[in-house]
Amino acid sequence: MESMIQSSCLTCDFRPDRLFCDMPAESLKSFDEIKSLTAYPRSTVLFAEGRPVRGIYILCDGRAKLSICSDTGKRLTLRIAGPGEVLGLGAALSNTPYEITAELLDNSQVVFVRRKDLLKFLREHREVCLQIVHMLSQDLHGAYERVRTIGMIRTRRPRIMFRPRALLV
Amino acid sequence: MLTPYGLDIIESCLACKMRAEHIFCDLPPAALQTFESVKYATAYPKGAVLFVEGQTPRGIFVLCKGRVKLSICSTDGKTLILKIAEPGEVLGLSATVSGKPYELTAETVDPCQVNFVKREDFLRFLKEHADACLRVAEQLSEKYNTACREIRSLGLSHSAAEKLAKLLLEWSAKNGEAAKAEPRVKLALTHEEIAQMIGTSRETVTRLFADLKRRQIVQAKGSTLLIRNKAALKALAITQ
After folding, report:
1. Which of A26, A133, B31, B79 has the greatest CB tally within 10 Å of its CB?
2. pLDDT at A167
3. By residue range, what is the domain housing residue B185?
């Protein structure tokens, strides 16, 4: 693994640049207690769509591919997540199965927090709660953007194909 | 007593009987008091536009009564309906929180009662009440879930028939009809609107419905649809 293992959030150099990680000292201390850090090789699947939710994953370094799958296994990549991003947040908060699949593209360090611990942490640390709301809004924004592009492509193509036949009738 | 658009307006959230059922509204007393002081109860007729995609966010709209159509528009004016919001849902939430333009257009389907909260008031409210903040996070997660489902249906389905079958099955699972062998679906939307929900043309939806009826998979009774052959509909919903 190329990068050094960063075992404590308290001494992390990247912290100020990252939306979620940049929390007040006191919150950070209790966050450090509930998290667990693991180094994974590339192409590890952190979580798969439809699986019951276990908790959230925070990418410390490396990238992850977020995708959606159809019943027959056809795949659609939503986006590539970068360092500092929190994955599985929506599912963890609403306690629904993961709605996407996250697969690592690089050898990465990933922080995991169990759902139960996260909820308790959020109840005790209000400031972080607001950050979470901000992050979810951003996720949602991205998803709507994606709906806009996909939805429009799919409506356009068939119509042009069928127009000549419609004229014959 | 005369009421606007025949709606029975609930003036105070404190006295609202539906509160306990709605995720966002079921706030602790202290938070509810504050919310009560910042919200404006308003009534809208059918067809009113609450906000338009691309507008600078003014605030959030909590839907108390009625239904609201949420749609996304392309540059060439095509409409895609994302969902029909039901009472208890908070509209314009992510835009208000992030300060980015509204990403959807919200238009009332029925006469609606909507509680409006200004952006500054709402952000202050969130800072002061952590419990409300968690509720908001839950609402956002749910919306994210819906958006992902929509992406899956639009991006990975092959045919309009498949998407229509999926939509009908989804509707039939609501209102306690799920367990029935022949569930009933109340069609509250026009063919045009259904077309906009699954990203196809009105003509295709009409043709598909005629086809489903001819094959005895569904039966129409006024605006109610009876699903007679659930297994066949499920087979249609699987991606070929």
Report:
1. A133
2. 44
3. 160-237
Read off the pLDDT of residues B165-185 as tens digits, 9 standing for 90 and up.
Answer: 988 888 888 777 777 888 888
Q: How far is CA B80 from the centre of its chain?
A: 13
Q: Looking at the partner chain, which of A76, A138, A158 has a beta carbon nearest the beta carbon of B156?
A: A76
Interface contact A150-B143, CB threshold 8 A = no
B135 and B74 within one domain: yes
The domain spans of chain A are 9-156
Q: Is A147 within 8 Å of B137 when comparing Cβ atoms?
A: no
Boundary (domain end) residue, out of B156, B182, B199:
B156
pTM assigned to the model: 0.79
Long-range contact set of residues B8-14: C-beta below 8 Å, sequence gap at least 24: B8/B65, B9/B41, B9/B43, B9/B113, B10/B41, B10/B64, B10/B65, B10/B113, B11/B41, B12/B36, B13/B39, B13/B115
Number of domains chain B is built from? 2
Do residue B30 and residue B52 come from a single domain?
yes
Residue B120 is encoded by which pair of tokens?
């500054």
Q: Is the same domain home to B175 and B124?
A: no
- Does the pLDDT of residue A133 top 80, yes or no? yes
CA angle A15, A16, A21 (to 5 degrees): 50
Count chain A–chain B contacts defined by CB atoms under 8 A.
Answer: 143
On whether both B148 and B216 belong to a single domain, the answer is no
Rounded to a whole number of angstroms, the CA Rg of chain A reads: 19
User: How far is C-alpha B49 from the geometric centre of its chain's CA atoms?
Assistant: 14
Q: Is the dihedral of CA B129, B135, B141, B146 positive or negative?
A: negative
Q: Is this complex's ipTM strictly greater than 0.90? A: no
Whether residue B115 sits in one domain with residue B25: yes
pLDDT in tens, A7-60: 788 888 888 888 888 888 889 999 999 999 999 999 999 999 999 999 999 999
For A58, left (φ over 0), alpha (ψ -120 to 50), or beta?
A: beta
